Amino acid sequence: MNPNAIAILGGTGDQGLGLALRFARAGRPVVIGSRKLDRARAAADEVRAAVPGAEVEGLDNADAVAKGPIVILSVPFEHTAGTVKAVKERLTAAHVVVSMGVPLATAIGDGAVRTVGVWQGSCAELVASLVPEGVQVVSAFQNVSAHRLRELAQPVECDVVVSGPPAPRKLVMALCALVPGLRGVDGGPLANARYVEGVTALLIGLNARYKVPEGIGVRFTGLPD
Ligand SMILES: NC(=O)c1ccc[n+]([C@@H]2O[C@H](COP(=O)([O-])OP(=O)(O)OC[C@H]3O[C@@H](n4cnc5c(N)ncnc54)[C@H](OP(=O)(O)O)[C@@H]3O)[C@@H](O)[C@H]2O)c1
Question: Each residue of 105-147: pLDDT tens digit?
Fold first, then answer.
Protein backbone atom coordinates (compact mmCIF):
# COMPACT_ATOMS: atom_id res chain seq x y z
CA MET A 1 0.00 0.00 0.00
CA ASN A 2 1.33 3.42 -0.97
CA PRO A 3 0.59 5.78 1.99
CA ASN A 4 -0.03 8.69 -0.40
CA ALA A 5 -2.33 6.85 -2.79
CA ILE A 6 -5.97 7.78 -3.16
CA ALA A 7 -8.32 5.05 -4.40
CA ILE A 8 -11.58 6.18 -6.01
CA LEU A 9 -14.23 3.47 -6.35
CA GLY A 10 -16.50 4.25 -9.29
CA GLY A 11 -13.76 6.63 -10.42
CA THR A 12 -14.91 6.01 -13.98
CA GLY A 13 -17.92 8.30 -13.43
CA ASP A 14 -18.23 12.07 -13.60
CA GLN A 15 -17.39 12.97 -10.03
CA GLY A 16 -14.77 10.31 -9.38
CA LEU A 17 -12.91 11.07 -12.58
CA GLY A 18 -12.99 14.76 -11.71
CA LEU A 19 -11.39 14.09 -8.34
CA ALA A 20 -8.89 11.71 -9.96
CA LEU A 21 -7.81 14.45 -12.36
CA ARG A 22 -7.43 16.99 -9.58
CA PHE A 23 -5.49 14.73 -7.21
CA ALA A 24 -3.27 13.51 -10.04
CA ARG A 25 -2.63 17.12 -11.02
CA ALA A 26 -1.58 17.74 -7.38
CA GLY A 27 0.98 14.95 -7.71
CA ARG A 28 -0.80 12.30 -5.62
CA PRO A 29 -0.85 8.68 -6.80
CA VAL A 30 -4.41 7.83 -7.83
CA VAL A 31 -6.03 4.44 -8.27
CA ILE A 32 -9.27 4.36 -10.22
CA GLY A 33 -11.59 1.53 -9.25
CA SER A 34 -14.39 0.08 -11.32
CA ARG A 35 -16.50 -3.07 -11.49
CA LYS A 36 -14.86 -3.59 -14.89
CA LEU A 37 -11.10 -3.59 -15.26
CA ASP A 38 -11.19 -2.28 -18.83
CA ARG A 39 -13.30 0.72 -17.76
CA ALA A 40 -10.88 1.46 -14.93
CA ARG A 41 -7.91 1.29 -17.29
CA ALA A 42 -9.62 3.54 -19.84
CA ALA A 43 -10.33 6.12 -17.14
CA ALA A 44 -6.70 5.95 -15.99
CA ASP A 45 -5.63 6.57 -19.61
CA GLU A 46 -7.91 9.61 -19.69
CA VAL A 47 -6.23 11.02 -16.57
CA ARG A 48 -2.76 10.37 -18.03
CA ALA A 49 -3.75 12.17 -21.23
CA ALA A 50 -4.98 15.22 -19.32
CA VAL A 51 -2.19 15.24 -16.71
CA PRO A 52 1.12 14.24 -18.29
CA GLY A 53 3.25 12.26 -15.84
CA ALA A 54 0.28 11.41 -13.63
CA GLU A 55 0.81 8.45 -11.34
CA VAL A 56 -2.47 6.68 -12.00
CA GLU A 57 -3.67 3.12 -12.51
CA GLY A 58 -7.00 1.44 -13.10
CA LEU A 59 -8.00 -1.65 -11.16
CA ASP A 60 -11.16 -3.42 -10.13
CA ASN A 61 -12.72 -1.89 -7.02
CA ALA A 62 -11.46 -4.50 -4.55
CA ASP A 63 -7.88 -4.35 -5.81
CA ALA A 64 -8.02 -0.54 -5.79
CA VAL A 65 -8.88 -0.61 -2.07
CA ALA A 66 -5.74 -2.57 -1.33
CA LYS A 67 -3.55 0.08 -2.97
CA GLY A 68 -4.18 3.12 -0.80
CA PRO A 69 -5.27 4.15 2.70
CA ILE A 70 -7.82 6.66 1.43
CA VAL A 71 -10.81 5.16 -0.36
CA ILE A 72 -13.33 7.54 -1.88
CA LEU A 73 -16.74 6.05 -2.66
CA SER A 74 -17.94 7.61 -5.91
CA VAL A 75 -20.97 5.58 -6.87
CA PRO A 76 -24.65 6.61 -6.93
CA PHE A 77 -26.30 6.39 -3.50
CA GLU A 78 -28.39 3.37 -4.42
CA HIS A 79 -25.23 1.38 -5.17
CA THR A 80 -23.34 2.46 -2.05
CA ALA A 81 -24.20 -0.51 0.16
CA GLY A 82 -23.51 -3.02 -2.61
CA THR A 83 -20.17 -1.42 -3.40
CA VAL A 84 -19.05 -1.37 0.25
CA LYS A 85 -20.13 -4.99 0.75
CA ALA A 86 -18.22 -6.01 -2.38
CA VAL A 87 -14.92 -4.62 -1.05
CA LYS A 88 -15.32 -4.88 2.72
CA GLU A 89 -13.04 -7.88 3.08
CA ARG A 90 -10.20 -5.74 1.73
CA LEU A 91 -10.82 -2.87 4.17
CA THR A 92 -8.58 -2.70 7.25
CA ALA A 93 -8.07 -0.33 10.16
CA ALA A 94 -5.45 1.40 7.97
CA HIS A 95 -8.22 2.73 5.71
CA VAL A 96 -10.19 5.93 5.77
CA VAL A 97 -13.34 5.59 3.65
CA VAL A 98 -14.69 8.86 2.26
CA SER A 99 -18.44 8.96 1.63
CA MET A 100 -19.41 11.43 -1.11
CA GLY A 101 -22.84 9.96 -1.84
CA VAL A 102 -26.09 11.88 -1.65
CA PRO A 103 -29.39 10.03 -1.11
CA LEU A 104 -31.09 11.79 -4.00
CA ALA A 105 -34.68 10.74 -4.60
CA THR A 106 -33.62 9.57 -8.08
CA ALA A 107 -32.76 6.36 -6.20
CA ILE A 108 -36.50 5.65 -6.04
CA GLY A 109 -37.37 7.12 -9.43
CA ASP A 110 -38.21 10.57 -8.06
CA GLY A 111 -36.37 13.86 -8.73
CA ALA A 112 -32.81 14.98 -7.99
CA VAL A 113 -33.93 18.12 -6.15
CA ARG A 114 -34.91 16.20 -3.02
CA THR A 115 -33.51 13.42 -0.89
CA VAL A 116 -34.92 10.25 0.60
CA GLY A 117 -34.59 9.32 4.26
CA VAL A 118 -31.83 6.94 5.25
CA TRP A 119 -32.43 4.90 8.38
CA GLN A 120 -28.89 5.57 9.67
CA GLY A 121 -29.31 9.34 9.13
CA SER A 122 -27.17 9.88 6.03
CA CYS A 123 -25.35 8.06 3.28
CA ALA A 124 -22.11 8.52 5.26
CA GLU A 125 -23.59 6.88 8.37
CA LEU A 126 -24.92 4.04 6.21
CA VAL A 127 -21.34 3.50 5.03
CA ALA A 128 -20.09 3.63 8.63
CA SER A 129 -22.62 0.94 9.57
CA LEU A 130 -21.26 -1.37 6.86
CA VAL A 131 -17.47 -1.14 7.12
CA PRO A 132 -15.53 -3.53 9.34
CA GLU A 133 -14.76 -2.39 12.89
CA GLY A 134 -11.79 -0.02 13.04
CA VAL A 135 -12.30 1.43 9.56
CA GLN A 136 -12.87 5.18 9.83
CA VAL A 137 -15.48 6.92 7.70
CA VAL A 138 -15.44 10.58 6.73
CA SER A 139 -18.02 12.55 4.74
CA ALA A 140 -16.81 15.07 2.13
CA PHE A 141 -17.06 16.49 -1.42
CA GLN A 142 -20.86 16.19 -1.77
CA ASN A 143 -21.32 19.87 -2.69
CA VAL A 144 -18.57 20.00 -5.33
CA SER A 145 -19.61 19.97 -8.97
CA ALA A 146 -18.18 17.26 -11.24
CA HIS A 147 -18.10 19.72 -14.11
CA ARG A 148 -15.97 22.18 -12.13
CA LEU A 149 -13.61 19.42 -11.02
CA ARG A 150 -13.02 18.40 -14.61
CA GLU A 151 -12.23 21.95 -15.81
CA LEU A 152 -8.57 21.62 -14.88
CA ALA A 153 -7.66 25.11 -16.07
CA GLN A 154 -10.02 26.70 -13.52
CA PRO A 155 -10.06 26.68 -9.71
CA VAL A 156 -13.02 24.89 -8.10
CA GLU A 157 -14.56 27.65 -6.02
CA CYS A 158 -16.29 25.66 -3.28
CA ASP A 159 -16.11 24.89 0.43
CA VAL A 160 -16.06 21.23 1.41
CA VAL A 161 -17.63 20.41 4.76
CA VAL A 162 -15.71 17.46 6.14
CA SER A 163 -17.29 15.40 8.92
CA GLY A 164 -16.08 12.36 10.82
CA PRO A 165 -13.71 11.34 13.59
CA PRO A 166 -11.10 14.07 14.29
CA ALA A 167 -7.92 12.50 12.89
CA PRO A 168 -9.26 11.28 9.53
CA ARG A 169 -11.36 14.45 9.28
CA LYS A 170 -8.12 16.50 9.36
CA LEU A 171 -6.56 14.16 6.80
CA VAL A 172 -9.43 14.70 4.36
CA MET A 173 -9.48 18.47 5.00
CA ALA A 174 -5.83 18.44 3.93
CA LEU A 175 -6.84 16.66 0.70
CA CYS A 176 -9.17 19.56 -0.12
CA ALA A 177 -6.24 21.94 -0.02
CA LEU A 178 -4.65 19.99 -2.90
CA VAL A 179 -7.31 21.28 -5.29
CA PRO A 180 -7.12 24.98 -6.24
CA GLY A 181 -10.20 26.79 -4.90
CA LEU A 182 -11.42 24.02 -2.62
CA ARG A 183 -11.39 24.73 1.11
CA GLY A 184 -11.97 22.07 3.75
CA VAL A 185 -14.30 23.22 6.52
CA ASP A 186 -14.38 21.35 9.84
CA GLY A 187 -17.85 19.80 9.84
CA GLY A 188 -17.57 17.98 13.18
CA PRO A 189 -18.96 14.49 13.75
CA LEU A 190 -20.15 12.20 10.98
CA ALA A 191 -23.81 12.73 11.92
CA ASN A 192 -23.56 16.22 10.41
CA ALA A 193 -23.21 14.61 6.97
CA ARG A 194 -27.03 14.59 6.74
CA TYR A 195 -27.08 18.40 6.47
CA VAL A 196 -24.33 18.48 3.85
CA GLU A 197 -25.92 15.76 1.73
CA GLY A 198 -29.21 17.69 1.68
CA VAL A 199 -27.46 20.81 0.42
CA THR A 200 -26.54 18.96 -2.77
CA ALA A 201 -30.21 18.49 -3.64
CA LEU A 202 -30.69 22.21 -3.02
CA LEU A 203 -27.72 23.02 -5.29
CA ILE A 204 -29.14 20.87 -8.09
CA GLY A 205 -32.35 22.93 -7.94
CA LEU A 206 -30.36 26.18 -7.89
CA ASN A 207 -28.35 25.05 -10.92
CA ALA A 208 -31.61 24.54 -12.81
CA ARG A 209 -33.32 27.77 -11.70
CA TYR A 210 -30.25 29.96 -12.32
CA LYS A 211 -29.27 28.01 -15.46
CA VAL A 212 -25.74 27.16 -14.29
CA PRO A 213 -25.14 23.65 -15.62
CA GLU A 214 -21.48 23.92 -14.59
CA GLY A 215 -22.62 23.83 -10.97
CA ILE A 216 -23.09 26.38 -8.20
CA GLY A 217 -20.83 25.98 -5.16
CA VAL A 218 -21.01 26.84 -1.47
CA ARG A 219 -18.90 29.34 0.50
CA PHE A 220 -19.08 29.96 4.24
CA THR A 221 -18.34 33.53 5.29
CA GLY A 222 -16.78 34.71 8.54
CA LEU A 223 -14.55 31.69 9.10
CA PRO A 224 -11.19 32.59 10.67
CA ASP A 225 -8.13 32.01 8.42
N1 LIG B 1 -21.87 14.36 -10.50
C2 LIG B 1 -21.78 15.34 -9.63
O3 LIG B 1 -21.70 16.55 -9.99
C4 LIG B 1 -21.74 15.04 -8.15
C5 LIG B 1 -21.60 16.11 -7.25
C6 LIG B 1 -21.53 15.86 -5.89
C7 LIG B 1 -21.61 14.55 -5.43
N8 LIG B 1 -21.76 13.54 -6.31
C9 LIG B 1 -21.85 12.17 -5.78
O10 LIG B 1 -20.74 11.44 -6.24
C11 LIG B 1 -21.12 10.07 -6.49
C12 LIG B 1 -20.77 9.72 -7.93
O13 LIG B 1 -21.50 10.56 -8.79
P14 LIG B 1 -21.33 10.45 -10.38
O15 LIG B 1 -22.10 11.55 -10.96
O16 LIG B 1 -19.89 10.28 -10.72
O17 LIG B 1 -22.08 9.06 -10.63
P18 LIG B 1 -22.14 8.19 -11.96
O19 LIG B 1 -21.25 8.77 -13.01
O20 LIG B 1 -23.58 7.96 -12.29
O21 LIG B 1 -21.58 6.77 -11.46
C22 LIG B 1 -20.28 6.63 -10.93
C23 LIG B 1 -19.83 5.21 -11.08
O24 LIG B 1 -20.63 4.34 -10.28
C25 LIG B 1 -20.47 3.03 -10.81
N26 LIG B 1 -21.74 2.33 -10.82
C27 LIG B 1 -22.79 2.55 -11.63
N28 LIG B 1 -23.75 1.63 -11.40
C29 LIG B 1 -23.30 0.84 -10.41
C30 LIG B 1 -23.82 -0.30 -9.74
N31 LIG B 1 -25.02 -0.82 -10.07
N32 LIG B 1 -23.06 -0.87 -8.77
C33 LIG B 1 -21.86 -0.38 -8.46
N34 LIG B 1 -21.29 0.70 -9.08
C35 LIG B 1 -22.02 1.29 -10.04
C36 LIG B 1 -19.96 3.16 -12.24
O37 LIG B 1 -18.63 2.67 -12.26
P38 LIG B 1 -18.22 1.29 -12.99
O39 LIG B 1 -19.30 0.98 -14.02
O40 LIG B 1 -16.93 1.65 -13.64
O41 LIG B 1 -18.11 0.29 -11.91
C42 LIG B 1 -20.00 4.64 -12.48
O43 LIG B 1 -18.98 5.10 -13.35
C44 LIG B 1 -22.62 9.98 -6.21
O45 LIG B 1 -22.82 9.45 -4.95
C46 LIG B 1 -23.09 11.43 -6.28
O47 LIG B 1 -24.18 11.67 -5.41
C48 LIG B 1 -21.83 13.75 -7.67
Answer: 999 999 999 999 999 999 999 999 999 999 999 999 999 999 9
Q: Whose CA is nearest to atom 23 of ligand 1?
A: 10
pLDDT tens digits along 32-90? 999 999 999 999 999 999 999 999 999 999 999 999 999 999 999 999 999 999 999 99
Evaluate: CB of 77 within 6 angstroms of ligand 1: yes
Break the chain down into helix, strand, coil percent, rounded to 5.
40, 15, 40
CA distance 21 to 72: 14
Question: Is residue 192 in contact with ligand 1, taking CB distance under 6 Å?
Answer: no
Query: Torsion over CA of 201, 203, 206 and 208, rounded to 10 degrees?
Result: -70
The residue among 209, 154, 159, 216 whose CA lies nearest residue 18 is: 154
Q: So what's the pLDDT on residue 11?
A: 98
Which numbered atom of ligand 1 lies nearest the CA of 14? Answer: 16
Q: Is the CB of 41 under 6 A from ligand 1?
A: no
